[in-house]
Amino acid sequence: EADYKRASLAAALRNWSLAKQENLAPALAKLPMPLLWLNGEDDGKSVELAKYITLQHPASRKVMLPEAGHRLLWQQPKLFCEEVNRFIHHLEE
Question: CA spacing 20 to 30 A to 72: which of 37, 38, 56, 65?
Answer without folding.
Answer: 56
